Amino acid sequence: MEEQNQNKEQSTQDINELLKVRRTKLSDLVEKGKNPFVITKFDVTAHSDEIKNNLDKYEDQEVTIAGRLMSKRVMGKASFCHIQDKNGLIQSYVQRDLVGEEDYKDFKKYDVGDIVGIRGKVFVTKTGETSVKAEEISLLSKSLQILPEKYHGLTNTDLRYRQRYVDLIVNPEVKDTFVKRSQIISSIRRYLDTQGFIEVETPMLVSNAGGAAARPFVTHSNALDEDFKLRISLELYLKRLIVGGLERVYEIGRVFRNEGVDTRHNPEFTLMELYQAYTDYNGMMELTENMYRYVAKEVLGTTKITYNGVEMDLGKPFERITMVDSVKKYAGVDFNEINTLEDARKIADEKHVEYEKRHKKGDILNLFFEEYVEEHLIQPTFVMDHPIEISPLTKKKPDNPDYVERFEFFMNGWEMANAYSELNDPLDQRERFAAQEEMFAAGDEEANHTDEDFLNALEIGMPPTGGIGFGIDRMCMLLTDSSAIRDVLLFPTMKSIDK
To answer: Looking at the DSSP assignment, which residues form a beta bridge with residue 307?
Structure first.
């Protein structure tokens, strides 16, 4: 143990000395009138992948490149280095006789991590590596820290999330994930544009955080001297726009839920909700199926995706099953034959499904679903027709008013989307809000509150409407084979390091 402590102390001393050397180098540059931080512009004409993928166009042509110095091999009067730009790595050959003695002397003092600019001609080395023969080289920014790669890479997961800027530099697959995330969101927008939807923006600060079962964050406006909440959903404002006649609207934006943090949950996450007038939850199923296929083909080039070694096929028709039938299939309990709350509690006790005193029959059905069914829903599956108790904003099924026209979309055992035939009866909606208020009074902190302005909008008149909410982060996790939501969030919520 003593030897380990001594080694750690020596390592800290070595790092501190290296950091000191970098600052000394910067001071020397400033004294010589070569402060890199006064440079305001450098014109880049080509990037690494463009050059390497189009050698017939670029060979023997002059280019200017810029990026981070990732390696350097000095060999007397000539050296090799690798520059990393936004698209990858490219080698540069730096020769004293070409760049000049003074600039070459400066180059030899460059550190890994520095930002450099190079002008030169493209050529291929004897070993077959596409390179740029430097004719001019400039230091554009001095790195005063040491990249983790120098100490066997950035592998500490917590540190990777806290210092994403370093993670992106030293772990190329991380950058690939976030490039793909951007492509996924762009692809979603293209698909919805072709379907006649318009993208809108709605408030993040709201008086009444409704539209979902979640505990909100609370803040205060000094100017208005009023408490506000961060939105937990996009639903109620988007429905107001349907009332206003926009007919097909969507929003992709951050929502905030004051809940736990795990591999699939972050208090701040990206949600997409869309609403379409004159359709129902069947229309939302069709849209979901088509959109997922479109995005997978555009981003991955295939409708077959693999997550954690398991293949899921988006090309086949998605399975459809009711919640009652799914519980019957996987738990062996038929809620069609359970007529009273007492019967539901009895079977829950027998099956060791925990429930609370406030839970009704429909709540217990949902608890069975969560306990017995979700983990089996690996292939794309629509679970339909939820109990009314857990669906306060959804139309009842005309032939069975204990259930509603709602579905949840599952893949890999995860809920990926939630959709309704939207409730547009203002009288029914008021009763549902009243029931939610009773639940809140009974201790359910995630229950909805009555939204009088939303009720007024419904009284103005909302057409029959289908609506759906998609978890963008979980979609990105599946399509990038990422094991945790933090792997697809550039800056996930983290506890302060000094806590």
So the answer is: 310
The vertex-24 CA angle with 18 and 29, nearest 5°, equals 130
Spell out the long-range contacts of 455-460 with Cβ–Cβ below 8 A and sequence spacing 24 or more: 455/426, 455/429, 455/430, 457/239, 457/240, 457/243, 458/243, 458/424, 458/425, 458/426, 458/429, 459/426, 460/243
Please state the separation of Cα 191 from the chain's center in Å. 19
User: Is residue 78 a contact partner of residue 95, using CB atoms and an 8 Å limit?
Assistant: yes
3-state SS, residue 267: coil
CATH code of the region 2-146: 2.40.50.140
Q: What angle, rounded to 10 degrees, do the helices at 472-480 and 281-300 form? A: 40
Q: Residues of the chain with pLDDT > 70: what percent?
A: 96
Position 35, amino acid: N
Alpha-helix residue ranges (DSSP H) falling in 260-419: 281-300, 323-331, 341-350, 361-368
Q: Using one digit for the tens of pLDDT, what is the confidence trace for 463-477?
A: 999 999 999 999 999
- Is residue 149 predicted with pLDDT exceeding 70? no
CATH number of 170-318+379-488: 3.30.930.10
β-strand 88-95 against 78-85: which pairing, if any?
antiparallel
What pLDDT, on the 0 to 100 scale, is given for residue 150? 44
Give the pLDDT band (50/70/90) at residue 37.
Answer: very high
Task: Say how far apart CA 494 and CA 486 lie, in whole Å.
Answer: 10
**Would you state the structure tokens that stand for residue 445, as one six-digit string?**
């902190």
Identify the band that residue 384 occupies on the pLDDT scale cut at 50, 70 and 90: very high
Asked if pLDDT for residue 5 goes beyond 60, the answer is no
Q: What is the mean pLDDT of residues 189-193?
A: 98
Structure tokens at 389: 């108790």
Per the listing, tokens 């139309």 go with 395
* Average pLDDT score, the chain: 93
- Amino acid at residue number 194: T
SS3 content of the chain, % helix, strand, coil (to 5): 40, 25, 35
Check whether 7 has a pLDDT greater than 70.
no
d(Cα 493, Cα 267) in Å, to the nearest integer? 7
CB-CB contact of 257 with 215 (8 Å): yes
What is the residue extent of each domain of the chain?
2-146, 170-318+379-488
